Structure formats: C-alpha cells, structure tokens
Amino acid sequence: MNVIAVIAKKDLLIEWRTRTLMARVVPFALLVLVMFAVALDSEPLLLRAAAGLVWLALLFSTMLVVQRSFDVETQDGVLDTLLACANPSRVFFGKATALFVQLFALGVVLVVGAVVLYGVAISGDRVVLLVTVVVSATGGLAVVGTLYGAVVANLIGRDSLLPLLVLPVLAPLLIAASRSTEAAFGSNTIDVANGWAWVGVLVVYAVVFGSAGALAFAPLTESDA
Amino acid sequence: MTSFVASGTAISLSGAVVALRGFPALAGVDMTIACGELVALRGGNGTGKSTLLRLCAGLVPLTRGQATVLDVELGKERAHVRHLVGLMGHRNGLYADLTARENVQFVANLVGATHADVDAALQRLGIDARVAATRVAALSAGQRRRTALAILVVRRAQLWLLDEPHAGLDAVAREELDVILRDATRSGATVVYATHEVDRPGLATPRTITLQGGRVVSDEQSLGRGTR
Hints:
The structure holds two protein chains of two kinds.
Chain A: H1 3-18, H2 20-40, H3 43-74, H4 78-85, H5 88-118, H6 127-152, H7 158-184, H8 192-220
Chain B: E1 9-20, E2 23-34, E3 38-42, H1 49-56, E4 64-69, E5 72-73, H2 74-81, E6 85-88, H3 100-111, H4 115-124, H5 129-132, H6 141-154, E7 159-163, H7 171-186, E8 190-195, E9 207-212, E10 215-221
Parallel strand pairs in B: 3-8, 3-9, 6-7, 7-8
Antiparallel strand pairs in B: 1-2, 1-4, 4-5, 9-10
Helix pairs in contact in B: 3-4, 3-6, 4-6
C-alpha cells in the first residue's frame, strides 16, 4: 500500500477509535456557531456574516484537530520510528491527507449548521462553487496545520503556541474562503465569478504551503536533544 | 526471525563528541563494535549512555570526531542511518489506540514487509492472538516491550539500540527479553543495550562497555560467557 495512504489510514483509524472529532471537535464547532448567533442576534447581520463565521469556527476547530494529530505521534515517541521508516515528505502528506478528510467532514457539518442556524439558502447552481471552496480551503488548512503541527510538536507549551503561530498565517486563507463562500451563499456583496477567482487564491495557497511543508517537514522534525 | 548478514563493523566511533545545549554529553568516545555482537553499555545516570544510543541512531548530531554506523558516516548523512537501525528508547514508540498487531502491521506496511513477516515477528516475540488483538493502552509493560521489539524485527533493523530495555519488567519478562536479545544476535543483528544495573544476573553479555562522564572507562570481554 502507498505510504501516504498507510499513514492517513492509521490516523483515521485512531480518530475512529477515539472519536475525538465526533465527541469534542464537532460539538465545539457547532457551539461556536451558536454563540455567534446569540452574540449578533440579528438575522440580516448573520446572513451577511455567515460565510466568515463558518470559516472562523473551522479555523478554531482546526487547532484542536492538529494538536490531536501530533499528540498521538509524540505521546510515546512514535515520531522517531515513523521518520525512520518513511520519507518525511510522505509522512507530511499522509498526515495532511488524514487532516483534510476530518476537516472536510467538519466543514460540511458547519455549512449545514449555517443553513440551519443562520437561515442561509444555497441555490443549486452554486453548490459546485461551495464544494470546491470547502475542498480547496480545507486542503490549505490541512497542509498549514500539518506544517505548523510539526513545528510545535516537540515544544513545551505547544497547545498555546500553535494558534499564536498559525492563525496569522491562515489570515489569507480566511479572507479567500470567506469571500468565495459568500458568493456560494448568494450574498449580494460578491458575485459567482469573483467567488471562483478567490478559489484560485485558495488553490495557490494550498499548493505553496503543501510544497513548503513537504520540503520543510524533515528539518522541522529533526531532534537535537 | 529475519536473518542478517553479520560481517564487518556495526559501530565505529573515534573521538566522538556530542554537545547538547552546550553540555558535552559525550566527551570523546572511542569504540568499535562488530556486526553480530551483543554489547551492554553500563554506567550511572547522566554518563552518556542514552546520548550514545541516540547518536548511533542518527537522532542527535555529531559535534566533533568521527562516527560510522553500518558504513554510514554520521557526520555527513545521519538521516540515512535511521532506516538501518532500530532504537527502542525509554518510550516504546507505540500508538496506544491501536492493537499490538496493528502497530506492527503499520510499520510493516511502511517498510514493505508482508503479513507473513508480521505473523512471524509476533510469534517470535511470544505475542499470542489475544494480546495481539488488544489495544496497546491495555497491555502490560512487558507486553508493550515485546510489541516494540516485534517492530524492530519486522523492520529488519540490522542494529538494535535499546535504552534500559529491562526497566519496568518483572523477573520472568526480563529473562524472556534476554532470550530474545540473544536470539537476535544469533540471527545476525547487532544488539547494543544500555543499563545502569552493574551486576544483574541473567543476560550473559559477552562484552560490557562502561561509560563515565561521557567517556569510555572500561571495555571488557567476558570470555566463555559468549552466546555466539
């Protein structure tokens, strides 16, 4: 079996066993959506802000999923064995693939949550745009999450360091994903053509950070102690 | 158990210095270990045993001196040596939420070993079907050690570097581990293990290297006690 698939399958099996996503991350993400709804308390405002709120909730949730993904590698010192048995760039893409699957599923749940909680209506002709946005944006989240998860994996206080380091880097993704999702949600602020243009930004972002992660994963996981 | 070609030099260190955050954990180590040897590294806490093992595993950089492991120069390509050696440190390197078999199978899939290799490794380490199907989180310390060793077997590691492998094991499990280590060297693997126990009966180690202050202070061959 392909090494990337082997690593991704292992991560997803551990997730299936521990139900971290289902038991902790999904409720947390939905709670964030609910809290935004309570705080804004205005249907027009929620409709206007729905796209950005969905991606903010997904960004916060990404921190939990990334931390869990690297906790399983560092808890019993497995990362050394993993890097001894597989090319580091394949380890990177294997872990990023598993993250992508989990974040995509979470993204779908949050979009449904926006429909239910905020009253967002998605017309049939915009579904392709919405799916493409979720795929490309969660792809970007997965590669950046894996890259920065590796950066903080062996550091003390990594739980608080990860969001401090990664959230500024994710700002362009947040902007592009929010704009293109606004177009997919049928917001009057941006049309579909512009939405597709923002998708292009998301794809470039994912490719750039995917390439950087594949190259940098080996030195980032290098142990000096 | 997988057999290895036992010839040549497994480890060759000359004036090896390793500085960790400025502290010389190894302060000029000279030693040569031939392929197929079973060697005990002895010494108290902080004498450099673990650092020496991690150096040979390619996990810490060589600060000064010469170091060759399985014909790989650590100063130039230490990442490459990681594919050839198996290090079992204080931690076992196992996924707690996978079963013993899944852990071994995972590594087997990474290195291209077959299901038959996994079965053979589990059988060799005395891991029965019930233990193999149990999640690592529920295994005893001895069973986890066996699973970690099964991974070394399935990886076909030519050099086993074991840091305090007897720690946390009861008397029976220690004796079983001794048998496993002797069998590994009979199959051609080189085994180097660290221990701070000076006179533990049981494992008749043919060669004992003692470290103190990051240096080798004695290198003794126990003639007649060899197992090979």
